[in-house]
UniProtKB/TrEMBL annotation:
Catalytic activity entry: S-ubiquitinyl-[E2 ubiquitin-conjugating enzyme]-L-cysteine + [acceptor protein]-L-lysine = [E2 ubiquitin-conjugating enzyme]-L-cysteine + N(6)-ubiquitinyl-[acceptor protein]-L-lysine
Domain of life of the source: Eukaryota
ANK repeats: 44-76, 111-132, 177-209, 220-252
Full protein name: RING-type E3 ubiquitin transferase
Residue stretches making up the RING-type domain: 319-369
EC numbers, comma separated: 2.3.2.27
Entry keyword set: ANK repeat, Metal-binding, Repeat, Transferase, Ubl conjugation pathway, Zinc, Zinc-finger
Species annotation: Cannabis sativa
Gene designation per UniProt: LOC115716689
Gene3D superfamilies (UniProt xref): Ankyrin repeat-containing domain (1.25.40.20), Zinc/RING finger domain, C3HC4 (zinc finger) (3.30.40.10)
PANTHER family: ANK_REP_REGION DOMAIN-CONTAINING PROTEIN, ANKYRIN REPEAT, PH AND SEC7 DOMAIN CONTAINING PROTEIN SECG-RELATED
Amino acid sequence: MGNSFGCSASGERLVSAARDGDVVEAKMLLDCNPCLAKYSTFGGLNSPLHFAAAKGHNEIVSLLLENGADVNSRNYCGQTALMQACRYGHWEVVLTLLLFRCNVTRADYLSGRTSLHFAAVNGHVRCIRLLVADFVPSAPNESICTQSDSEQLDDANVRIKSSQSALSKFVNKAADGGVTALHMAALNGYFDCVQLLLDLHANVSAVTFHYGTSVDLIGAGSTPLHYAACGGNLKSCQVLLARGASRRTLNCNGWLPVDVARMWGRHWLEPFLAPTSDSIIPAFPSNYLSLPLMSVLNIARECGFKSVAATSSDDSDLCAICLERTCSVAAEGCAHELCVRCALYICSTSNIPSEITGPPGSIPCPLCRHGIVSFIKLPGSPVKGNKQQMSLGLCTPCILHPRDLERQSSASTPDIRKNRVASVSSEIFCPVTCSPFPSVAIPLCTCNDGPCPSFEPRETETEGESPNRSQSTSVEQDKMEGPRFDRTTCSSMFWGRRSCSREHQCNSEINA
């Protein structure tokens, strides 16, 4: 693999093209020698796929995979391209890797972290939503069988239990020191990630271990509530308490969550974390679970993403969202037809709260506001060929509307108006930094009775990534959120120095 092909100069040119996003250069090199897709830098640090995934160059990722690059290839640290994409929040790259059936459960060599850990520690909720797509079945797919057919009902129950077991194992997989994705999201104050992980049945009682190479200043035996108390985000603590977290759990140091909050200067959390507290915990509806994602993802794997232009003058077969491709999927219930690209984009990005009660996790139809829980493949849809473009070249997305609970039979397709819909700007990707696995910078608070020093608030994420972090200057919201803290570039709190040093070699090569 890699340098054994005897084409180091061409391989380095491909690495540079993957890092810089030069699609023309990458295509020219791969046309001359497709084996370059498997090239790796000296010492096996990273492959061109790792560079393209870390930088968010989705076209080059697709080009490399189509030319034989291993979607599950590891770098020197055992990290896959999926981990790199999740680290920096490039959800479109994550989607492309999923279409090529990457393994989401793999862990790295250093600390046993999965892609879910990398997404949760940096608050990339869209990446988390995509990572669990193959574990969350659509509701209609599991309710097809009737009560009269006991054999089909038993098979459906077995499938449901099996998928729930696999999802629980994946979401609650512990990295070095017993740290789960919920621990990291709670520590860094990513409320939307905490809420989604809890919707996916993350264990609120999971505790860290007293062994491992990681250094934990909170102490072994700490629950996600201990970590949320250390991070200082009030809403994360509230949603954990609402989902069954205990205020009375002691870690191995004999600390309650309120003791951790007091030690780290999070005094605004003490009224809520006190064991005798009777504070009212508000309800937080979740908008990030996506039920139809599994169905449309499987259809996309089967059909591919080859753009099919309409050959007829009739516009009835065109997708009503992009007006560029023919419809290939239909929504269960309202039976509105879309192309597979638009359907995937809607399922990956929609987080609009529903005005009408609907199934949790349903996506509002952009045409009628009906709650979509599954997509079906239309008859006559093309089957993926050997050499098709499979990257998510985003079509003109729609402005999503709230969903509806009503579900109707899809026997007939209603006649709908095909109107061009206003477009939404694509998400701004976060830049690549050299932080191997960042945590929060937790300053020691030495003020026992006096006021705590003031800290600058952490920069908010993009509007598309997390609507819960909208920019507001009201005093009430500032009290709810509490101070935010800048993240360190190298986490000495959880991951050992040896791990950070080795990982820094791979990351510094990518960021060179």
